[in-house]
Automatic annotation (TrEMBL):
InterPro entries reported for this sequence: GerMN (IPR019606)
Superkingdom to which the source organism belongs: Bacteria
Descriptive protein name: GerMN domain-containing protein
Start and end residues of each GerMN domain: 77-166
Amino acid sequence: MRRVGLLAFVTAVALGGCGVPAQDEPHRVELPRSPLTAVTTRPAPTESHGGAAVVICLTRSGRLAEITRRLGSPPSVQQQLDNLTVGPTRAEQDNGLGTALAGLTLRAHRAASSTEVTVDFTEADESNARSDEVLAYGQIVCTLTARADVDSVVFTRDNQRLEVPRADGTLSRGPLRAGDYASLIGPG
């Protein structure tokens, strides 16, 4: 009996000494968000000029490339999408960055308190096949899910969900996340 008591005491001390305080009720744990995926890292934005640092996913050599742009204030989801569809700046183009979103009109919608964004998608000329379609969807998904308030993106046209390609070539109507395009993410 004495050994059982000693064993219980040692176990309690070992568990209590791990640095995790005992709690009476469960609580929500907020884990840090990965900017895109665990396999890439993003340099920390500098605070020298103020404003808001936002992630925009452009393309370079057939891959997705994350860049950080400074805006005067934190943009809405639609403003960040508009910033993406403008394409690379002259300096970014000189650095080899491009876009697969030329000729697209995009509208973002999000229900109040939702972390899922719906992007209404139309092309200027729908009869043209796009060889960079996966990159175009990847740019949008990776840009929007880099926001702390967006977890996933779905695409629609005329209020109908679109079946869009993921990096592995499979099609999905469901919510897409940056991880669906992780294999296309290259150095920024």
